[in-house]
Amino acid sequence: MKSPIRDIASPHLIALAQECIDECASGHEDCGAFSVILDQAVLPTRLIDCVDPTHPRLVMTEKDQRERYLALSYVWGEPQPHSTVRSNVSVYEREIDFSLLPATIRDAIYVTHALGFRFLWADTLCIIQDDEEDKGHEIGKMRHIYHSAHVTIIAASAEKVSDGFLQARSHLSQSALDPLHSDFRARGDIVLPFICPQDSPTSTGESGESEDHIATQPPEVGSVRIVPESPRDPLLRSLRSSSELGPIDSRSWCMQEYLLSPRSLIFTARTLQFRCQTASRSVGDSLCNIGPRKSDLIPSMLFLEDPPPLSPGWAGDWRKVHKAWLGIVRDYSGRATSLPSDKLPACAAIAEHFHRAIRSDYLAGMWRERLLPGMLWWASDGEELQRPTVFRAPSWSWAAVDGQLGWDISHSVASQHPGPSSERMLAEVVRCDIVLEDAALPFGRVADGSLILRASLLRCRVSAELKRASPDWPSSRRILLQSPRQAQQQDGDEVDTVTQLFGEAVFDCKNDTDSENKRVWAVPLLYDCLTTDGINPDECAHKTQGILVALADLTTSELQPVGRSIYRRIGFFCLPFMAPERYDNRKNDPAVKLRQALENGEYLSEDITLV
Prior knowledge:
- The protein is an alpha+beta fold.
- The protein has 15 helices and 24 strands.
- It folds into two domains: 11-168 and 242-297, no CATH class; 321-610, no CATH class.
């Protein structure tokens, strides 16, 4: 393993980075297809001319102008008083005062020039920040800007724009990772001495010195740094994880910039990394090579100029794309935005990118063809979710809440035994309407939305006690569901303990758990088989999943039907059980009976409106 290269701004490291870029463009088979596309990409509206890096200027590109350019991804972290605004556009087109720019922008200009490129795109200068029309137009092109950039510079080490990212990196101290290995002393870099080899002696040395004189010289002692390389070592796992991305890993806007970039130079807190669709590694092999996380990568087919449409079903590409989407949204849900209203706009470019292959209606963060499974999210890791004070999305959409969410990505979408027997819908989407804030931005902000499901509405009773923590739902509560007989009674509100229809529930927000004065219903959405790689579905756990709803506060909405009860989502529920076809003694399990009753129509179905 080579010694870490910590002088990030050195010409030597920049040259090594250029080698990585060239190797990817010409030598990576999986990257080759979009390399041709990048070379033919139309330039963004404005770019920074970096020919003279100390005297940059803003350039208005010509229509259909094509040339390679770089893009910058970074965290603002503070106001930028010298951004482009309407009053200084003409000034910046002549020259931008380099001394006024924050360190991260200056560093990006230097890297662009050092790599031999002329143009750089950075939002603070290439978008007119006080022009809402221009902002909307440019944000709508965000997918093309990052997808078409030859390379994206990711300032992963900078917590704010004034920090910069080209400082020399320091060694990781041996105490830095103490919490990871309390019983092992070498937590960080391990420094070992070694004797530097001397020239092979001859009768006289190259300098004319005698062999005896060389032999009597004291050996020169050097040092080598070793980074733990075992796959089980927590340090390596942390390097493989997003923690190496630093502050950008917690920001919503940065995620789409990171994912949509075919190639990235990532200036981490430790060193410089190069990432493309084929590999992720430290430049110059300064640290152990690190393969990209699967959840980091958008399927390569989506980087094609015209990806083939995916037929709904269980073919490999369909399953791969939907699994990647759920993984991305799960990651994205825990990220922060400065403005609560940016929840959907900050991932709009990713949604647009996936839509090119999925080609299904995009409904406030959900795909119409997977609307029912997409609604089965829950508050992950026992975290309390928060709802914004102003409407942002319908209650059934993940975009309606803030906080880390979980999905059961291991179900049929990821199964090696996919098919109709693995997933059965217990509800039907009758109608789903979304009102966009701007019709020209189909993946952007939502002004209103409603969903009508034809499903069973089961009254349920919620336990006040938290259920014993489980890995999937650490803060779940026990709920008791109505039997078919109880649901068919005239008032339909009775819930007793005779049937023992118990399930696990996770409420979305803290005030949703206050069920003493609230009527709560369960809406089963699908029955699923939780498969494991290499295991037949008949030998795996099965479960019925759905959402919990309560009566919605009747506020004005153009989508609410007149004279019908309106509900809103307040949580998620699950009834797990073993496959009855495999284990005869499970046929009388109440959870099995519930699934059979739902499939046989013993519970009445009705049209349920959710907002």
